[in-house]
Design brief:
Length: 316
């Protein structure tokens, strides 16, 4: 592209984005994922227009029904006239580098609804389950004008705790028969939740699981208000309205207390940290054989290798 055509392309894309052209939104996210300078300039231009959406994290173990529950929450939100975006995060294979990106299949019924946008994104090796580009895509979705943005995380266990640094409200989905809830507390997973959901509540053991969560919360939240513990049967849409209402109440509490501003800062801080981690990983991949050989030969310490990476300007 010539400089003039490049500028024209950028200005046109920005204008289309602000006019709510869904293809422009999809293209902007793709530019971010590709790591292009155009994507970063777009993000810079649009960041000041963000800060209005409600960010809801939906996390839990695999098979807990997160996708089905998110699908039903979309329906409730749309019935209230709210515009909804979903980022479905899928794990990247450590062997092939690929990802299935299949959660949007479960929400296929919304593909013709102009008020719903669903995007699958890979973790790109981030241990916390959220790639840096996921956080930047959130900003674009917010600036685009969505009211509710759901992030459905990978569901891989302890690494799920990163969602608390991103979401305004974190919903933890548990199901009966998937293990002792106290063990989950030991892993730190349950301490992140603003709202607990016992999904598939028609299964045996639901009442026991609720009692275990209640008891564990009372131990860990002395002198503080306990998070809600709700029961749902997502496949039948039971309890979903109540869950959406609890999310609304929690967000209003954050707003009235002034905590939302701190959450915006925390999210941006985590975005920068995630980018740094990602770029250091790329830099190590480029130079790892030489550096590892030096470390194994005793010519470098691990800390010296890190400084060498930074000094070489290997970070992209």
């Amino acid at each position: 592209l010539t400089p003039f055509s490049y500028i024209l392309y950028f200005v046109t894309l920005l204008e289309r984005f602000r006019n709510r052209d869904e293809r422009a939104l999809a293209r902007a996210i793709s530019l971010l994922e590709a790591g292009t300078s155009e994507g970063q300039v777009l993000l810079q231009q649009l960041r000041k227009e963000a800060g209005k959406a409600r960010i809801i994290g939906v996390t839990g173990s695999p098979g807990s029904g997160k996708s089905t529950l998110t699908d039903k929450l979309i329906k409730v939100a749309r019935a209230k006239g709210r515009r909804v975006a979903v980022i479905a995060v899928d794990p990247t294979s450590p062997f092939s580098g690929g990802a299935i990106l299949g959660d949007r299949i479960r929400m296929i019924q919304h593909h013709q609804d102009e008020g719903v946008f669903i995007r699958s994104m890979a973790t790109r090796g981030q241990l916390g389950g959220l790639a840096a580009t996921t956080l930047q895509a959130l900003v674009l979705l917010d600036a685009y004008g969505f009211d509710d943005i759901f992030i459905e995380t990978v569901g891989v266990g302890q690494s799920e705790i990163d969602i608390v640094k991103v979401a305004d409200t974190t919903v933890l989905v548990l199901t009966p028969g998937q293990g002792d809830s106290v063990q989950a507390f030991k892993a730190g997973i349950m301490e992140i939740a603003d709202v607990f959901v016992i999904n598939k509540a028609d299964l045996p053991g639901a009442s026991r699981l609720k009692r275990e969560i209640q008891a564990a919360l009372e131990l860990g939240h002395k002198n503080t208000e306990l998070p809600d513990i709700l029961e749902t049967i997502a496949s039948e849409a039971k309890g979903v309205e109540e869950l959406y209402e609890a999310i609304q109440i929690h967000h209003e509490t954050l707003k009235s207390s002034g905590k939302l501003t701190n959450l915006y800062k925390q999210r941006t801080r985590f975005e920068i940290t995630s980018l740094l981690t990602e770029q250091l990983r790329f830099a190590l991949q480029d130079s790892q054989d030489a550096l590892i050989d030096k470390i194994l030969k005793g010519e470098l310490t691990s800390h010296q290798a890190l400084r060498e990476l930074l000094e070489m300007g290997s970070i992209r």
